[in-house]
Every structure is written in C-alpha cells, then in structure tokens.
Design a protein that fits this description.
The protein is α/β, with parallel strands linked by helices. The chain folds into 2 domains: 140 residues, Rossmann fold (3-Layer(aba) Sandwich), CATH 3.40.50.720; 175 residues, 2-Layer Sandwich (Dihydrodipicolinate Reductase, domain 2), CATH 3.30.360. Helix content is 34%, strand content 29%. A 9-stranded mixed sheet has the order 14-13-12-11-7-10-9-8-15. Strands 3-2-1-4-5-6 form a 6-stranded parallel sheet, with helices on both faces. Strand 9 and strand 10 form a beta hairpin. The longest helix is centred in the C-terminal third of the chain and has 20 residues. The radius of gyration is 21 Å and the shape is globular. Bound molecules: nicotinamide-adenine-dinucleotide. Nicotinamide-adenine-dinucleotide binds next to loops.
Length: 333
C-alpha cells in the first residue's frame, strides 16, 4: 500500500487538534477533513491545513472517502462515533479512555471487528520515550525483583471534562502502564475517592492495587492540585527508577547494598543510597510516535500496538476502582 492514507479527525478540541496537526505533518498520510459540532472550531482547524470542515461527522463520513479517523470527542461519545465510522469501513483510532463504560468499550471492539477495520486506542504514554527505555531496563533485569509501582498524576481540574471522573480520565493511563511494566495482571484493588469540584464524578483517587506477581501499585491521582505533576517510580531489589512523563526524564537511584553475587533470597540485605544515573533519552512527541505506529499497522495489516482489548482492560480496571471507591471495599478480580 503505497498511496497516501486519507485521514480525518472527529472532535478537534484540545486533543483532536493535535491529531490534525500530526496527520498533516506525516508524509504518507493526507489529512482530508475535520469535524466538530463546534463549527467555528472545525473551520479554524481546517483552515490551518487547507482541508474541509464539517459540523456533522456523519456528513463527513458520507462525503469523504477516508482510510482512517481519529475519534477525539468527549469520552462518553466515543461509542456512537466509533460505531458510525466503523460502519463506513474506516479504521478507528480512538482517544483514551476507549469508552466511558465496559459495555461501550466492548461495543466499539465488536463494531470494529464486524466491519473488519483496525482499532487503535490512544494510550499515549506507551509511546513516551522515557517509558519505553524503562521497559527495556526492567525487562533486562536492571531492577531485580520489582516491589512497587507508584504513580502520581495530579494537576488542576480541566472544566471541559464533564462526562467522566478522574479515574476514567487519568487513572486509565497508569493502569495500562502499570500492567505493561509489571508484566502482570491486576488481581485486586482498593480505592478511596472524593468529589470536591466536579459536579458529578470523583476528582481524587487514592488507590492500591495488587498484581498477580506480588507487585503493589499505588495510584495518587487528582484534579485538585495547583501544579501539574506526572511521575512514576518503580522500586525493586536494585533501587528505584523514576520517570517524569512530562520532561521525558528517566533516573535510576541505585541501592548500593545490592550485589550480583548474593543469592536472590538474601539479596535485600539493606537499602542505602548509591549512584544516581540519568538516562540519555532521545525525546520524541509521543502522539507522533503513536499515530505513526497506527498507520504502520494499517499499512502492514498487523494488529495495532495498543488495540481494543488493552483499551477495554484499562476501562474495566477504572470501573472497578470507581466501584471500590463508592463502596469502600476491596475488589477481587
Ligand atoms: N491521550 C491523552 O493524553 C489525552 C489528553 C486529552 C484528552 N484525551 C481524550 O480525548 C478526548 C477529547 O478530550 P479533549 O480534552 O480534547 O476534549 P475537548 O472538550 O477539548 O474536545 C472535544 C471536542 O469534541 C467536540 N464534540 C463534542 N461532541 C461532538 C460530536 N457529537 N461530534 C463532533 N464533535 C464533537 C467538542 O466540540 C470539542 O471540540 C477524550 O476522550 C479525552 O479523554 C486524551
């Protein structure tokens, strides 16, 4: 397939307009059109790239011969838009979270399967170069046995997010990343949630999760913090990795007590501060890497790097966290 792939974006708000920019920059993709119920927003973005603007995405799907579409409307609308686009035989790239419920996420997967189109899900942090390097280091055994993953994703409340709470909107990033890095599945979880500012949904989550390999995950996620922090740390026998998602920095704080020669059972004789290593990370815009990867999956007719099942899994775990928070109960999966 050497022809240009014809792309469109549905929903050109704060995320979708970046998809439009990246598609317009890609050499093997042609941005054809954008759609947004906010017609002024659609026209504004369309004019930047010299493409057509639609207020009704259905009209766009009827009129334009498309190969792929990004769906970046509010989360609760992902399902209806995805079903419609799939029915037009267009490959779907759906922003994360895949949907606002497990039922909707499954319906999107079913629609893509029935139409024979690819479904990619925008778990963008999986394309963060610092996370990719961390995954290489963990899989190479650089940390030894892993004990705990700790994610802090906090910042001010974005008033545009009306349809879901912070668990669906932000914790889905970390749930996906944690299962990926731990190489394990969540077996139980517990959440305390609070609603302080959001009219309907929780805006604070303190969560604890347990993986099937014994690793513990801690989630500190909220929309109540005046400054934006996106950090992950991973501790294990040999020390602690620390990622700053925003600056794409990766550090290893070594445990100087750890020695190669000790039996693993007695390896953790103590913990003391050793060297700090800052990895040299080649920065790349995660959205660009993500969309390039999706386009490659279409061209090579292979499964997208992050497909519907992973998107559904994050939504399922988010739903369980919300339930746990409402009931103040541990949920065993
Ligand atoms: N991957 C990430 O890190 C990331 C970051 C931000 C947002 N997102 C996701 O992207 C999606 C959009 O979020 P956002 O922050 O850009 O929201 P936003 O409110 O800024 O943009 C949504 C846009 O969709 C438009 N819209 C609403 N209903 C529509 C319809 N029926 N047809 C066409 N357009 C419609 C709105 O007018 C708006 O312009 C959400 O699912 C969100 O979770 C992902």
């Amino acid at each position: 397939m050497s022809k240009l792939l014809r792309a469109a974006v549905i929903g050109v708000g704060s995320m979708g307009r970046n998809h439009a920019r990246v598609y317009a920059e890609m050499e093997d993709v042609q941005l054809i059109a954008v759609a947004d119920v906010d017609q002024a927003a659609a026209v504004r973005v369309a004019n930047i790239y010299g493409v057509r603007a639609y207020a009704d995405y259905r009209m766009m799907l009827e009129a334009e011969p498309l190969d792929l579409v990004t769906i970046a409307v509010p989360t609760r609308l992902h399902r209806e838009v995805a079903e419609e686009a799939a029915a037009h035989g267009v490959h779907l790239f759906v922003e994360k979270p895949l949907a606002g419920s497990v039922e909707d996420a499954q319906a999107i997967i079913d629609a893509a399967r029935a139409a024979g189109v690819k479904l990619g899900v925008g778990h963008i942090e999986r394309f963060n170069p610092a996370i990719l390097q961390l995954k290489v280091e963990l899989d190479a055994g650089r940390l030894g046995r892993m004990f705990q993953l700790h994610a802090r994703r906090v910042g001010p409340f974005p008033p545009r997010v009306e349809d879901v709470g912070v668990v669906f909107d932000l914790a889905t990033h970390e749930l996906n990343i944690m299962e990926y890095l731990a190489n394990a599945r969540v077996v139980s979880l517990y959440a305390e949630t609070e609603r302080e500012i959001h009219e309907q949904h929780e805006d604070l989550l303190s969560g604890v999760i347990k993986f099937d390999n014994g690793v513990v995950g801690v989630l500190d996620i909220n929309w109540l913090t005046p400054t934006k922090i996106r950090e992950l740390s991973v501790i294990g026998e040999r020390g602690m990795f620390r990622v700053n998602y925003l600056t794409q920095e990766l550090y290893l704080h070594e445990n100087s007590f750890f020695s190669e020669n000790w039996e693993s059972a007695v390896a953790l004789m103590g913990v003391s501060e050793g060297r700090t290593i800052k990895y040299e990370i080649k920065r790349k815009e995660p959205l660009k890497a993500e969309l390039e990867s999706f386009v490659e999956a279409i061209r090579q007719d292979k499964p997208p790097a992050i497909g519907g099942e992973e998107g559904l899994r994050a939504v399922f775990l988010a739903q369980k966290l919300v339930e746990s928070g409402l009931r103040h109960e541990v949920v065993h999966l």
